[in-house]
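Work Package 4 report. The design task specified in the project plan requires that, given a folded chain encoded as structure tokens, an amino acid be chosen for each position. We show below one input record used in the internal validation round.
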């Protein structure tokens, strides 16, 4: 078994859900994923219930790129090692897409622009039925530091970048990813308009480069869209116990909580709060992939 190529990416979280107002923004989290392209099946079978990996190969070929070593699509196999909890709103699909496309580029010695990687990742997620919008903002977050405010309806990936920011300082903030298990359903587009006011507050905060406020307002909107009573309680309890921002990411179920590193009592109080909640599966303590850090 030969490794034909390899690629890496990272997970992320939402600052503005793209289905809320038609604009989306996400930022990377230091939760890694590595994908290897193989010429024979791996001993560890890749878990791909949505058929994303074949869709990635289709997107690669439809963009006019060749497969490595003149192999056919059915001759390609994958090994995925991911620390990103799936179906949690932590951008695991976008991260898999970016890392797998990097592996294809590595295997073929192909120079691929960032915009093309994002475009192919979006196409693969739409064709596999994973994303409502193509998750272009997610793909950017899994590929590059900082965050970008995206218009997914723009004529091109480059033109779709409306605004961007570096991200909050990791010297100041502890990022706690509160995981509650995989989501059981996805919201529909018609579920979002009634909560437009909260999404608008998140958008305004982003335009002012206040990511913490954006994350919180977007999260409030999403728990309302999902009618997630438990998620609302966890978020509110976190704020009452010293968090400076808290909000659900993606379409759930993970909740992102930010605590000031300078306040050890607040960080410890939040850890105790989550440890004593039987509905929480685990908490990942990590950091953002900001523009000051190269992943």
């Amino acid at each position: 078994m030969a490794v034909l190529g390899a690629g890496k990416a990272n997970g992320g979280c939402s600052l503005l859900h793209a289905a809320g107002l038609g604009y989306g923004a996400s930022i990377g989290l230091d939760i890694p994923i590595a994908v290897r392209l193989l010429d024979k099946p791996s001993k560890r079978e890749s878990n791909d219930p949505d058929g994303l990996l074949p869709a990635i190969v289709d997107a690669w070929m439809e963009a006019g790129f060749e497969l490595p070593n003149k192999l056919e699509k059915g001759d390609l196999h994958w090994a995925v090692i991911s620390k990103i909890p799936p179906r949690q709103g932590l951008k695991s699909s976008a991260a898999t897409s970016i890392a797998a496309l990097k592996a294809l580029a590595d295997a073929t010695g192909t120079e691929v622009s960032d915009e093309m990687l994002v475009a192919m990742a979006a196409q693969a997620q739409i064709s596999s039925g994973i994303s409502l919008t193509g998750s272009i903002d997610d793909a950017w977050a899994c590929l590059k530091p900082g965050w970008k405010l995206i218009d997914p309806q723009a004529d091109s990936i480059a033109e779709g970048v409306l605004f961007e920011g570096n991200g909050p300082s990791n010297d100041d903030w502890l990022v706690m990813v509160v995981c509650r298990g995989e989501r059981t359903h996805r919201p529909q587009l018609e579920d979002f308009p009634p909560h437009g006011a909260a999404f608008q507050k998140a958008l305004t905060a982003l335009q002012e480069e206040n990511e913490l406020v954006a994350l919180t307002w977007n999260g409030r909107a999403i728990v309302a869209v999902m009618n997630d009573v438990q998620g609302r309680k966890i978020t509110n309890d976190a704020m009452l116990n010293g968090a400076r921002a808290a909000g659900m990411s993606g379409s759930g179920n993970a909740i992102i909580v930010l605590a000031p590193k300078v306040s050890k009592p607040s960080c410890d109080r939040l850890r105790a709060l989550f440890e004593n909640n039987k509905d929480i599966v685990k908490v990942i303590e990590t950091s953002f992939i900001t523009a000051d850090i190269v992943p």
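The domain at 3-165 is CATH 3.30.230.10 (Ribosomal Protein S5; domain 2). Validation will be extended to a larger panel in the next phase.
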